[in-house]
Amino acid sequence: MSKEYELVTVSSKGQVVIPQAIRHEVGLVPKTVLLAYGKKDTIVLRKIKIPNIYKAWGEVFDIMKKKELKLTARDVQKEIEAYRKEKRLKMTK
User: Fold this and answer.
1) Residue 92: is it exposed, middle or buried by C-beta count within 10 angstroms (0-12/13-18/19+)?
2) First to last CA, the chain
3) Boundary-marking domain end, from 50, 65, 84
4) Which candidate, 53, 67, 90, 93, has a CA 20 to 30 Å from the CA of 27?
5) Are 61 and 69 in contact, with CB atoms under 8 Å apart?
6) Are residue 8 and residue 44 in the same domain, yes or no?
7) DSSP collapsed to 3 states, 16-69
């Protein structure tokens, strides 16, 4: 972690520029998602990775194709809806 501190100023729109040295050290690039948390006079920014759901589902369907499962996207959606309905019924009991 960098041992040097830098001052930043909040703009009229509430924006701050993260110093270049910190961006490089943390690996911030355009479109990086940060979680912001504040309490009293402290603000914490944490880099988070949000999974690409489309890629994940694509991988699931690729595995299903390799195993020659005859499930379609519609079959999976029906199963998800049935599970959610069952879960809602349990919650109302």
Assistant:
1) exposed
2) 52
3) 50
4) 53
5) no
6) yes
7) CCCCHHHHHHHCCCCCCEEEEEEECCEEEEEEECCCCHHHHHHHHHHHHHHCCC
In which domain, by residue range, is 70 found? Answer: 53-92
More confident: 68 or 16: 16
Q: CA dist 35 to 44, 47, 52, 67, 78, Å?
A: 8, 6, 17, 39, 34
Indicate the range of 1-5, 33-37, 57-61 predicted with least confidence. Answer: 1-5
The CATH number of the domain holding residue 36 is: 2.10.260.10
- Mean of per-residue pLDDT scores for the chain: 86
When pLDDT is averaged across residues 72-87 and rounded to a whole number, the result is 88
Residues 59 and 21 in one domain: no
